[in-house]
Amino acid sequence: QVQLVESGGGLVQPGGSLRLSCAASGSIFSINDMGWYRQAPGKERELVARISSSDSTNYADSVKGRFTISRDNAKNTVFLQMNSLKPEDTAVYYCNSQIYVRAWKKYDVWGQGTQVTVSS
Questions:
Q1: What sections of the chain are H helices per DSSP?
Q2: Whole-angstrom Cα distance, residue 65 to residue 19?
Q3: Does residue 64 contact residue 22 with C-beta atoms inside 8 Å?
């Protein structure tokens, strides 16, 4: 069994910053891509940023230049540094990863989500 646990959400004023963390745990053989998605009320879940095992990254256009994704492979953890936050960034943020428990067996795992609210 493997799981992802997010932390770091909260309430912040416009222009502020937050740092999200997501740690993978369980019987992990290896981890490929890790990513962050978000879902605002009444909207579909959307990609925010992803990072590969070789640290290649991609971002949604709406967050480029403001958000930075990074990972600590030794700790099976991915981070999302969010700067210059806007009210439209308000959403539940979810961590996602392809986790191998054996060389031939992988799971698509989602975290439970963490709320980010940007408001004055």
A1: none
A2: 15
A3: no
End-to-end CA distance of the chain: 41
Cβ partners under 8 Å of residue 39, min gap 6: 45, 46, 91, 92, 94, 113
CB 32, CB 53: distance < 8 Å: yes
Can you tell me which residue has the tokens 């960034």?
89
Q: Which of helix, strand or coil describes residue 75?
A: helix
Length of the chain (residues): 120
pLDDT tens per residue across span 29-81: 999 999 999 999 999 999 999 999 999 999 999 999 999 999 999 999 999 99
Report helix, strand or coil for 88: helix
71/79 Cα distance (integer angstroms): 6
